[in-house]
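Worked Example 4.2. Read the sequence first, then its structure tokens.
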Amino acid sequence: MNSPNSEDSWIPLSDIPDSFNELIDKFHHRHPRSPRPPQFILDFARRAPLDSTSHNSDSTSPSVLSHRPAIPPAIRRPRSPSAVHHDPRTNYVPPAQTTTRSGCISKPPQRLDPIS
């Protein structure tokens, strides 16, 4: 069932003729959620035929380019800044008086431990 020619398999962009570029662009504009290769690979695939014809004398450059991975390695995310934790109790000042549910006015007792 996992044959290399299944509809879910990927083929190299270099195997797709340039005449299909417009068709592929239309498909991805109509189906933005479908998987697509990164933009730099698409640009590289468009430049690759020009580069390979201009460097026919250098036999090592096409082989080096063909060994590049299709998807670049993941780049580590920068570390998030460490969170600064503040104790909210250090800056709390109780109100001078509060009203209870029954409507009585309550005055909180004086704090014995002063906040410094």
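Now turn to a second chain, presented in exactly the same format:
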Amino acid sequence: MALPKLSPRGVAERSAPGKPAAAQTVSILERFPLDVQRAILDYVPRKDLPNLARVKAISFAARLHLYRTVQLRVAQHEGFVRDLDYFLKAGKENLAMVENISILNSTRRQCSRSIGHSWNRDGSWKEREEYMENVNEFNDKILIILRYSRNLQSVRWFHTFKMKQSTFSMIIALSTRTLTNIETHGLIIDDHPPSTPLSGLPDIPRLKISLHTAATTRHCGVLTPELTSIFTQQASNITHLVIGNESDIIRTANSWIATRNIPPDRTPIYQLLQPRGASIAEFRNVQKLGLIGLRVIPLLNPPDPVILRPALDLYRLHSLSLDSCVGIETLLGGLSRSARDSDRPYAQTRLKLKEFRVRAENPSQTIKTALERFLASFKGLKLLSVLLDGTDEMIDHATVMAAHGGTLKVLVWEGRRSLRSNHIDLEHSIDGTPAFLTLLSETCPNIEELSVVLNMRTLYLRNQGRLYCPCPYMMLQLPRLKTLHCRDFLVPNSRSLLPEYAIHANRMVATSFLDWGTHAHFGLSKLELLAVGPINFHDRWVQNHHSHDYSVHPERGPIFYDVRTMQDNLMDIAHCLNPLVKVRARTNDIVPNDVEEIKREYRHTRVFESYWLR
């Protein structure tokens, strides 16, 4: 029996009557002889037969939904060619529908054993020449995909093969009318300047630019002329800016954090944005600002107490993030200082801030004091994230909750001593101040997402009196809590533990904690998502190198559980925690869902934006 001839797309083609030039694509099933179709339909339940007529119409309608937002997980080795070629087979019509694209590392194993390259700690290859060859080819293939898109709005690039500066420029040049977001964790300087002229590009109405590691000219610490041209031209249109040098922080983090030495000097933000002999670009409309590993002390002497002028006006900001920056005590101290003509601080009278994040390593007492005064000088924060590493005490939580407790919806709070596993306690009162967890339940009724270190090992401690102590369970009384992130593993990791056992053991400990807190301490059981384990630089997007290869050690990264409740004869309400993992059919490898997948499936996930360097 002769089967119908198939096109390269895998479907049969035929010409419509009266229109020989027009081609229609039909399914393979439709082109089979009638007796073959009947034999196939014998296996279809009768009740499903009426639905077959809708399949073709639904498939066309589904294309727009499937291709509008695309998440590409591409191999971080030579296999990326196969992965990208496979996606290109979708065809020009489907690729033209892409509006939002994320380019991420694959969750598969890093490479075959026959390939002998190894990884640096930042996720790049040690064989620099071979790495750059792959980077060039990777960027070229991604540009081919992006050229097909007519309405490209967002590009997120978090892959081992980093974005080149010329690719960054080309994306902006190709999508000036529609682009609203371009984000990457690193830019690589091209050996040859991009040939695309960047002068005269039309303005982009609203643009988010996020460069976690900006491409800077060698030995200067300033942006390359090509990037400076883009920033200067689009400065007034940028509404969300994230910029810094994360890779440099990671390279030096382990040495100076461990020894408590003075941190190395950071590039001033002005020097990063200002080329020699040129004026500083003024970002007048920036509402969200993230600075990573920069010196933020103002240039003026004495420093301007309120504004990083002329580049940035902090009064306009709705969101401010200071990650591993130097000089934050001067900046925050100036903001909390009283105005000349008033007894009230500048921040209280003019600041519009709704979101504030800070991460500091080995913070001095001056930094902690400035941070306390700043947070107490105004009200109205909806998101607060405070991560202090290498400190023996946290800032005063009572002062912070008194100022922002009524409005807070997202809270991340953790202090670590010199040892990573030695966390600052949140269950006991300090100098007469109520414990953090106790005060949290009393003053922050609107909390929806909480990320703190919790000791859930209730039933595994000799001190049985802790079962009847209400403090560890107080956060379960928050009426709107949807996401709870325990920033520590409940069961210590060990090489002798099987991944499935570690995931299961953490689930059992957490289930006992939630059940007992709900039953004995009047918890409200509104949780939808539980996360166990810290999040660091490598956990934000799967890196798959060294100990962070999740296909080998899935228990090393944060473990996510979907939380449901059911009626129980003993506890009234029992919690069902379902691990969010995938099991590969061939190898039975366990691959836990990473942060990117969780953000796509769950609504309340902003607590996972705050991470440690190590």
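Notes for the reader: Residues 3-23 have pLDDT under 50 and may be disordered. Residues 499-520 form the longest helix (22 residues).
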